[in-house]
Amino acid sequence: xxxxxxxxxxxxxxxxxxxxxxxxxxxxxxxxxxxxxxxxxxxxxxxxxxxxxxxxxxxxxxxxxxxxxxxxxxxxx
Length: 77
Known about the structure:
Layout: H1 11-27, H2 30-47, H3 50-73
């Protein structure tokens, strides 16, 4: 059942659901988990517009540059 707008989700059901997902993930091989994640990423990318993809790519470049600059400055400061 899909909750209606404004209806809070049952926290107990959410906890059980997350346990099931993590238990399944532990049983899968790392290669299979990677394949599933890759398929999910590709599916998400298909739904995005060219402008959205471009914005995400720009943010990724900026994050890598920040990380490299931080490493040059000497770590977590």
